[in-house]
Amino acid sequence: HESQEHVRQALQHDELVLYYQPKVNMRTGQVIGAEALIRWQHPQQGLLAPGLFLPAIEDHPLAVEVGEWVIHTALDQLQVWQAQGLELVVSVNVGARQLQQHNFVQRLAQMLAAHPAVKPNCLELEVLETSALEDISGVSHVIEQCRHMGVTFALDDFGTGYSSLTYLKRLPVALLKIDQSFVRDMLHNPDDLAILQGVIGLARAFKHEVIAEGVETVAHGVVLLQLGCELAQGYGVARPMPGADLPHWVQHWQ
Ligand code: G
Ligand code: G
Ligand code: MN
Ligand code: NA
């Protein structure tokens, strides 16, 4: 595991990169967007997954800097894709705590203003429940303000947090992301299948969209479609890839 100081140097030396994993509609075949996933292109150790270095900066001001770098870089990428004729929504992961940094809304507005060609509704934020002690009304207020700018929201890892149902009830999001832990064994485990049915029903009751992550095979996709979940992300569709590879991937997928 990496230290705070090393992550700071990675940021300064431009060694952080974003990979993008496509999200598709399994019924229509349409590519609806891509999730930005951070990696560290480490000069000695190769490509490092976020689990190896994000924990080192959690609850540290550096997490704010990295979070802003991610949004800025995703907006840059959107601008490049758009110039190539590719219209997508990019999703960025944000901790509920990151949303509560004192000037988050203002900083987001500045970053959007710095990318005038990018429509705000092409940016989606996936909110991660990071602790049991979140100030939900504060988070909710921030989401409202961002929604006024046109940015959309998803609840990430739905079902795994301390208070998923409270989040569902209180946060004005448009999309639920079913955590991959419920999807992985859905073909064999009746409990997981029951949870999927429940979450898809909840999404419908709240008039939210729902996406399954960790969709690894066609068989998973077929059952999810039968259950009423049309949107999918997972290795069965595509692995996360560099942004430069995505236009080519989209061409061959369609
Ligand atoms: O890409 P990978 O499957 O290794 O991601 C592991 C975890 O890291 C996921 O839960 C994802 O939400 C998180 N993650 C990936 N990129 C970012 C990021 O830019 N910011 C934050 N806060 N979390 C991220
Ligand atoms: O932000 P979130 O927790 O949703 O992060 C998704 C993580 O799951 C990323 O690290 C991504 O690399 C990983 N992932 C995406 N699709 C699959 C999949 O089909 N199977 C598995 N095991 N992991 C996946
Ligand atoms: Mn996510
Ligand atoms: Na997730």
TrEMBL record:
The lineage of its organism: Bacteria, Pseudomonadati, Pseudomonadota, Betaproteobacteria, Burkholderiales. This is Diguanylate cyclase/phosphodiesterase with PAS/PAC sensor(S). It is found in: Cell membrane. It comes from Rhodoferax lithotrophicus. Residues 1-254 form the EAL domain. The chain holds residues 823 to 1076 of 1087 of the full protein.
